[in-house]
Amino acid sequence: MFELIKSLTQTYGPSGNEKKVAEKIKNLLKGKVDETRTDAMGNLICVKKGSGKKIMFAAHMDEIGIIVTYIDENGFLRFGNVGGLPQLIIMGQRVRFENGTVGVIWYEENIDNMKNATLEKMYIDIGASSREEAEKMVKVGDMGIFVGETVLQNGKIISKALDDRLGCAILVETALRNVETDNEIYYVFTTQEEVGLRGAKTAAFGIVPDMALALDVCDTGDTPNCKPMSVKMGKGPTVKIKDRSVISHPEVKDRLIRAAEKANIPYQLEVSLYGGTDAGSIHITAGGIPSGGISIPTRFIHDASEMADMNDVENAVRLLCEFIKG
């Protein structure tokens, strides 16, 4: 699965511009599902038809990034965020634009306290010496993604955009395994999650599934002096209990736990005090949809060097396959 993850993580796809990721996934699943369509929001919906209940699995294609807001006379770019950007972490990081242009994020050096280094006090240097030269390389409104190589080391994946290309890879691999079921399965690769869970909301409204799961990443509590949390990397995928966007429906949660225990799949229970997933918008759509989630414990989320354990990823595929079987 590593090569699949590497291919997806290294594909350009900030919020609102996920088409390259969607095209790659569409090609991977060509002939492996019964129907493929793209809705008005850009969500890629792949259907395995059946006569039973409609079950929706969602993983978001978009990644965090930046958007150019202004180019000054010396060719430096001012920028805003696309998704949540931890300001102290992004300094010194490289960003890459869709046309291949690379820039470096830096800060105004007259700042006397790094806590004051807000995005408004930062800029991107693309090596241009004037506005005219810079505008030949990028334009206001262009989006950049962070540069981060995808590597496998000691069974751990280190990469940018594991949030949430891991979820996308899990859905792709599950679809390729073609689990026997009478239910109708919707593998939905959503857009604009990082800017407000937008794509999943419209996809769910169009499908109106009987049940839904969001596949995403979650924080861990296993690094030095971190905020206390029971989730640890390498101890199995999580069954979501609650985050800031959703309280998992008991029917969905219990079905996941039964599936894990029946197949002897290691799992953890996740209570996240921060963040949310596509389940947050799905469960309040179309009169209400029983929803829950599976998460991959991931360190350094929203950084160019996120980290996850391959065993957790592979066990998430096993868990999703068992969930489908019912």
Characterization of the model:
Helices cover 26% and strands 28% of the residues. The chain has helices spanning 2-9, 19-28, 87-90, 131-135, 162-177, 198-207, 250-262, 279-282, 310-325, and strands at 35-38, 44-48, 54-60, 65-71, 77-82, 94-97, 102-107, 122-125, 143-146, 151-153, 156-159, 184-190, 211-218, 238-242, 268-271, 291-299, 306-309. The chain contains nine helices and 17 strands. The radius of gyration is 20 Å and the shape is globular. The strands form two sheets. Strands 1, 2, 3, 10, 11, 12, 13, 14, 15, 16 and 17 form an eleven-stranded mixed β-sheet that branches. Strands 5-4-9-6-7-8 form a six-stranded antiparallel β-sheet. The protein folds into two domains: 2-63 and 160-325, Zn peptidases (Aminopeptidase, 3-Layer(aba) Sandwich), CATH 3.40.630; 65-146, Elongation Factor Tu (Ef-tu), domain 3 (Beta Barrel). It is an alpha+beta fold.
Order of helices and strands: HHEEEEEHEEEHEEEHEHEEHEHEEH
Q: Distance between termini?
A: 24 Å
What structural class should be given to the helix and strand makeup?
alpha+beta
Architecture of the largest domain, according to CATH? 3-Layer(aba) Sandwich
The CATH topology label of the largest domain is: Aminopeptidase
Report on the biggest sheet: 11 strands, mixed
Unreliable segments (pLDDT under 50, ≥5 consecutive)? none
Number of helices: 9
Mean pLDDT: 96
The tally of structural domains comes to 2
Assess the beta-strand content as a share of residues: 25-35%
Q: In CATH's first tier, which class of the largest domain applies?
A: Alpha Beta
Shape: globular
Radius of gyration: 20 Å
CATH superfamily of the largest domain: Zn peptidases
**Could you estimate the helical fraction of the residues in percent?**
25-40%
Number of strands: 17
